Amino acid sequence: MIPIDDSPIVRDGKILILAMDHGLEHGPVDFEDVPEKLDPATVFETASHDAVTCMAVQKGIAEGYYPSFEDDVNLMVKLNGTSNMWNGEPNSAVNCSVEYAAELGASGVGFTVYGGSNHEIEMVEEFREAQESAREHDLPVAMWAYPRGQGVRNASNPDTIAYATRVALELGADIAKVKYPGSTDAMAHTCRVAGDMPVVMSGGSKTTDHEFLTQVENAVQSGCQGLAVGRNVWQREDPTRILDALEMVIYEGESADNALEATE
Length: 264
Ligand code: FBP
What we know:
Helices cover about 40% and strands about 15% of the residues. By secondary structure, the protein is of the alpha/beta class. Strands 1-2-3-6-7-8-9-10 form an eight-stranded parallel barrel, surrounded by four helices. Helix 6 (about 160-170) packs parallel to helix 7 (about 185-195) and helix 10 (about 240-250) crosses helix 11 (about 255-260).
């Protein structure tokens, strides 16, 4: 397999995944304040920003929209997902194969594993199949490493987040996407337990420019290679501006304050 740093979804050792699988995971409610973003083409246009190393979408969005953007955007196909209508113990249906993701033009694949769910065993078995198939296609695998379910008392607990990150390394993920564990020390610990595997911070629900960029700055300073973000970019009125600022913080090591000032 090609070294992760040589993958097209990595730029100068850094990663910015623009995720837009929310229509499946959360439903149209995430687009209420930005109804124009219901058209996936608008988010693909945003993903053509230099700061974005790939855009993560589900199969149906890749099939319908990626052909118009393949020259400007690297594609990550999410191989599993669940709707918010599912009310059971956390699980994620595999809805796309690695072979088909490769056919669609993917430069990487994404896979959710809910550690601590009663479905963890089957999810890890499904991950095994995807990970080994991704190796055959030379595609990096990003694990959405989300502790969630009956075995998890507190999904925000820093030790739990570090554990989920280590699970990603042990199972052969190339990138772990994790929630911010609350402090720079905890994030640094999370990155340490990941060994050489890049860790990217999950964006979360939309916050202010300052709050969001400061958290990204803290994550990057703690050893994170970047970000996998959705709402904090495309729910904004001006996604280009926040991407300009993210480019400074992630790739140039600028502070959130400097990046905000420079992009005002
Ligand atoms: P956000 O930056 O908007 O949080 O997107 C990242 C992501 O992992 C998406 O890929 C996914 O749809 C969503 O968050 C899952 O959110 P939740 O943690 O609420 O399940």
